[in-house]
Design brief:
The chain is about 70% helix and about 10% strand. It has about 160 residues and is mainly α. The chain has a single domain, classed as Winged helix-like DNA-binding domain superfamily/Winged helix DNA-binding domain (Arc Repressor Mutant, subunit A). Strand 2 (about 95-100) and strand 3 form a beta hairpin. The longest helix has 25 residues, at about 115-135.
Length: about 160
């Protein structure tokens, strides 16, 4: 039992490193900046976007008639948080708010041409990340991949239950 406990503690330390020391926001920002340079998007070079803003742009780009409530549900962020993010995106000229003629109560969002560029670059970012993960996963046996899948499912369940 001592070996198993030692192995569990070792995994816990690695998990803490992943969760607390890997700055996903900074990593995503660096990857986005790299893509902007590769794509030579001069109009986006000085644009500062958070990871949450990128995800909101992505959500709006995937749904032509989405409102604050819809974005909040899809991204698991409060409506207040989405309102703040969309206001920033409107100010940055990436998103525009509109209302339907038959429903003046709800505010909907659509991407501007600048927002469309970010949307497509975000998609490139996801494709590159997926390729990196696919290359990493190819190093493992089918049994190891099955275990990794089960572990990620269990880990996801833990985070969702809290």
């Amino acid at each position: 039992m001592e070996d198993k406990e030692r192995d569990v503690q070792k995994l816990l330390r690695k998990l803490k490193t992943l969760i607390y020391q890997v700055d996903l926001e900074e990593h995503a920002h660096r990857m986005l900046q790299t893509i902007l340079e590769e794509q030579e998007c001069a109009d986006l070079q000085n644009v500062s976007l958070s990871l949450a803003e990128c995800h909101v742009v992505d959500c709006i780009g995937r749904d032509e008639r989405v409102n604050t409530t819809g974005i909040a549900r899809k991204l698991n962020i409060t409506k207040g948080g989405i309102s703040k993010i969309t206001a920033k995106l409107v100010k940055k000229g990436m998103v525009e708010a509109y209302r339907l003629a038959n429903n003046q109560k709800e505010t909907y969002y659509r991407l501007t041409p600048l927002g469309e560029k970010i949307f497509h670059l975000h998609e490139v970012l996801h494709q590159q990340a997926e390729a990196q993960f696919a290359a990493l996963f190819s190093l493992y046996s089918p049994e190891e991949l099955a275990f990794a899948g089960r572990f990620l499912d269990d880990l996801t369940a833990v985070f969702r239950s809290q």
